[in-house]
Structures are given as structure tokens and as C-alpha cells.
Design brief:
Elements lengths: L24 H11 L5 E4 L6 E2 L15 E4 L3 E10 L11 E8 L6 E5 L7 H7 L5 E6 L10 E5 L1
Antiparallel strand pairs: 1-2, 1-3, 4-5, 4-7, 5-6, 7-8
């Protein structure tokens, strides 16, 4: 009994509830503040020419600091989408649709909800969310500087 012998791990279930304030940082803060004015900003790298939405501090291609901001359009193209039919904590009750959309003037895609679709027939709704489908950005009436200030709608 003096030696340790391998045994099955004991799992102790638990939960943590932690309140905190998260600093979005300079780049994300500029993006979120612009949403209050119904503007969607991309950070741009002058060396690679890539415009990132959501914005990045550094370019993934040149490894240089993104050195300017550009306002991107309120129209775009779906690159990928799905309809969620399972419930998840802190998200709307299913079903709901989400899509990665490359907005006009952006080099990357931004995830957000797609609203205005009849989701009672999931296969029919999914057919409308195919890559290449055009969408418009719709801002809420009282933007607060959050990504949920806007959503996409099929054009």
C-alpha cells in the first residue's frame, strides 16, 4: 500500500458563476463604438491590402500592424450559414439562422444572425442561405455598440 497505483479518475461536477468586466481593447472598441453610429468598420493593412471584419490589430498575412480603418458596405454575400435547431445557453430559442457574410469592401466574413426567414420549413430556409446569396444589414433602432446591433436579411 506504499505505492501509488493507477485508479479511475473521480469527476466532481460543479459550476462557476463569475461576473466580470471585459476590456474589448482599442481595436474592438473602435469597431463597437462605430456600430452605435450604424457604421461597420474594417481594420486594413496597407501592406497586404486586406480589410478585416471583425477588425484585427495585426495582419494575418503580412504580420504588420493594421494601419487604417475603412467603412464597409451594408450589403454582402453569404460565405457559410446554418440553421440552429438545438437550444444553447444565452442564445435565442431555436430555430434561428446565422451566417458568415463578406460585406462589400471587406476581405473577411463576419458572423451574425439572419432574420426575416420563415424557419418553419428548415430545408426550404436553408436553401435560401446558400453561399453566394446576397444579404442586407439591418440595424436596430437604438444601437448600443454591440454586435447584436445589426443582423442580416436576405436581399
Amino acid at each position: 500500500m506504499n505505492q501509488l497505483t493507477p485508479q479511475a479518475d473521480v469527476i466532481i461536477p460543479g459550476e462557476w458563476h463569475v461576473r466580470y468586466n471585459y476590456s474589448a481593447g482599442l481595436v474592438a472598441s473602435q469597431f463597437l463604438n462605430a456600430l452605435r453610429e450604424r457604421k461597420i468598420l474594417a481594420s486594413r493593412c496597407s501592406k497586404s491590402g486586406i480589410a478585416y471584419v471583425p477588425p484585427r490589430a495585426y495582419c494575418e498575412s503580412s504580420f504588420e500592424r493594421c494601419d487604417s480603418w475603412v467603412e464597409v458596405g451594408h450589403r454582402g454575400v453569404i460565405e457559410a450559414a446554418t440553421i440552429v435547431t438545438a437550444a444553447f445557453d444565452h442564445l435565442p430559442p431555436p430555430p434561428y439562422a446565422i451566417a458568415y457574410v463578406r460585406l462589400e469592401g471587406a476581405s473577411t466574413a463576419l458572423l451574425n444572425f439572419v432574420r426575416g426567414l420563415d424557419l418553419s420549413d428548415v430545408p426550404a430556409a436553408a436553401a435560401k442561405l446558400q453561399p453566394g446569396a446576397r444579404v442586407d444589414v439591418r440595424f436596430r433602432d437604438d444601437p448600443e455598440g454591440r454586435i447584436t446591433d445589426f443582423h442580416y436579411e436576405i436581399s
